[in-house]
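Technical annex, item 7. During the second reporting period the consortium partners agreed on a shared format for inverse folding records so that results from different sites could be compared directly. Each record opens with the tokenized structure and is followed by the designed sequence. A conforming record, contributed by the partner at site C, is shown below for reference.
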């Protein structure tokens, strides 16, 4: 059967998600998930009918939360589907390219490769910021430029002035796609206000992180109305299951938003606790993080990672040499992880 598949798919290395990598333990800080398991109710009515492609109640609820108009919102099966939809909508196979800036989220490359769209990379600078001169040199054939802020796995924010300069640079040539999967942990850094000024801006959002709904698979694209209308031409007919809409609307209610904001405060406090504790250890460098995770450089990251893994503390290897990415869990998980690392480095 393999020979029947497209050659680029045969050669493809799939994205190694946390679940694919596996592991066995009682502390799971490898997937940037929330430790909060919130309860929701589902009435189960209407399951015999197909769902609405873009449920009005859900679109309106997220538009109100994000501070945009409903016609500027598209909901999808996680932000991952939005990445694929944008590529399918705007990139011609064999002609166009996407551009992204590693180290960053791996699904930009995977989604382009599986759709036969070329990939260009311009690495971030040593400070993990956009290399604007190099991006400008590589814009030929580029239709989409993906920028993640807070960036995964580094955790830093991309300079606001550089984002605006990139939007100016690509005006009339390409869309800038701001991946704001972690923006709920630092909402003041959002680029949503730039939608008014830049028609070539699209923003990715998700309920997976701060809303503690990774298993729901509910994401959003924020953009001008024309971009949203084009994306609705290629999205699947029934992308949002009825129970997903019910739960998401509850999460975006006044009570749901209050709970999310309280939990974000808790997680940000735990991040600060982890950062302070790790920074006190010898030869350990903790990078500033603005999401629900930290990137940490250790003297022997591979040895430490294996020791943690073998003792049921599951973290995430980083493509950045000598680094491990640690998701922020509840205080007990953070304390257990910090204590173990202290003992290993003593």
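Designed sequence (site C submission):
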């Amino acid at each position: 059967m393999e020979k029947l598949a497209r050659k680029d798919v045969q050669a493809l290395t799939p994205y190694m998600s946390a679940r694919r990598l596996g592991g066995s333990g009682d502390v799971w800080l490898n997937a940037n998930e929330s430790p909060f398991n919130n309860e929701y109710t589902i009435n189960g009515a209407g399951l015999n009918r197909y769902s609405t492609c873009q449920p009005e109640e859900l679109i309106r609820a997220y538009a109100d939360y994000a501070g945009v108009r409903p016609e500027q919102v598209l909901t999808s099966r996680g932000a991952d589907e939005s990445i694929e939809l944008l590529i399918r909508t705007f990139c011609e196979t064999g002609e166009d390219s996407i551009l992204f800036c590693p180290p960053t989220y791996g699904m930009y490359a995977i989604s382009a490769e599986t759709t036969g769209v070329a990939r260009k990379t311009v690495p971030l600078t040593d400070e993990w910021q956009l290399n604007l001169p190099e991006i400008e040199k590589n814009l030929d054939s580029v239709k989409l430029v993906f920028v993640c802020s807070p960036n995964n796995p580094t955790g830093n924010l991309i300079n606001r002035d550089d984002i605006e300069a990139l939007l100016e640079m690509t005006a009339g040539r390409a869309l800038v796609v701001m991946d704001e999967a972690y923006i709920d942990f630092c909402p003041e850094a959002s680029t949503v206000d730039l939608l008014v000024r830049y028609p070539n801006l699209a923003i990715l959002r998700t309920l997976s992180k701060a809303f503690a709904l990774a298993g729901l698979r509910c994401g959003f694209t924020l953009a001008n109305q024309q971009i949203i209308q084009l994306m609705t031409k290629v999205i699947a007919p029934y992308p949002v299951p009825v129970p997903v809409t019910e739960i998401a609307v509850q999460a975006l209610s006044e009570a749901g938003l209050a709970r999310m904001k309280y939990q974000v405060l808790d997680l940000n406090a735990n991040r600060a606790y982890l950062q302070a504790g790790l920074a006190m250890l010898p030869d350990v460098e903790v990078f500033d993080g603005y999401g629900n995770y930290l990137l940490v450089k250790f003297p022997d990251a591979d040895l430490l990672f294996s020791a943690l893994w073998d003792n049921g503390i599951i973290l995430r290897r980083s493509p950045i040499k000598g680094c491990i990415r640690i998701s922020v869990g509840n205080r007990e998980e953070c304390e257990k992880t910090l204590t173990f690392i202290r003992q290993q480095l003593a």
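The longest helix spans residues 254-279. The chain has twelve helices and 13 strands. All partners now use this format for quarterly exchanges.
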